[in-house]
Amino acid sequence: MKRSLGGQVLAAVLVNAVYAMKNYPVVLLNTVLAPLSFLLVIFFVSRGALIGEAIEGALIMSMFSSGMGLQTDLSHLKNDFKLQEMVVSSPTTPLLYVAGMALSELVYSLPALAVLTALAAIFLHPGFIEAVSLLGVMLLMFLTSVTLGFTLSTFSSDIMQSFAMSRLISTLFSTLPPVYYPITYIPLPYRYLAYLSPTTYAAGIAQNATGFLQLHSVALLADWAALIGVTPCLALVAAKKARWREV
């Protein structure tokens, strides 16, 4: 049974990540350039003053976009190859199916993550506690976007619709909120709008961990609580609303 489960996950990684990386290496440029492009813009605009915040923002954006990429891939497999119909009629559970596909998205993002991790090591010099905080934030961002991406993919009826929605959500959640810069740069009357995005809490925790932003202990705990609470809430929505069997 364990071998069967492991084989299904491995198959998802091989088909959805390794195959594309091997046969179409040019598509990897998007995963690398997307977070780095915003990083470079912030770097030049701030004249290097926000390089640390920008690197952390790029890591958060990369993880969030990686999870949201699941929406497009699942929609493609569901609508064009009718794979979800076969999965529904097989012993494979939705959780196992999504876990394998999510892992493939993470593997697909490894080149971008490797570059950003190297930049973080050079410019941030995080200690053990800081590194654990950053990893925790990145993992929660990935789980949040995976859950959201899966739910939306079950409603999508066309790959172009899914692609547009994925890009829109990635932009709204990872570039407009204060992810690449401190939230203190936003004027106070508009600052509260930023808290509508979970990436704002992720960036606040990351920036606080590395000393770029000073948060009161109560505010820090509130950020962690909000970030940790988002994923189970979205998972509940997915369990109730996702059209897993209505293909």
Q: Please trace the helix and strand order, writing H or E for each element.
A: HHHHHHHHHHH
So what's the overall shape? globular
What characterizes the major β-sheet? none
Strand pairing plus helix content: what structural class?
A: mainly alpha
The N- to C-terminal Cα distance equals 27 Å
Unreliable spans are none
Query: How many domains comprise the coordinates?
Result: 1
By DSSP (H or I, 4+ residues per run), the number of helices equals 11
Question: Helical percent range?
Answer: over 70%
Oligomer: single chain
Strand content: under 5%
Mean pLDDT: 85
Radius of gyration: 18 Å
Beta strands, count: 0
In short:
This protein is mainly α. The protein has one domain. It has 11 helices and no strands.
Can you put this structure into words, describing what you see?
By secondary structure, the protein is an all-alpha fold. The protein has one domain. The chain is 78% helix and 0% strand. It is built from 11 helices and no strands. It has helices at 2-23, 28-45, 51-79, 83-88, 94-108, 110-123, 128-155, 159-174, 188-194, 198-209, 217-241. It is globular and about 50 Å long. The model has no long low-confidence stretch (mean pLDDT 85).
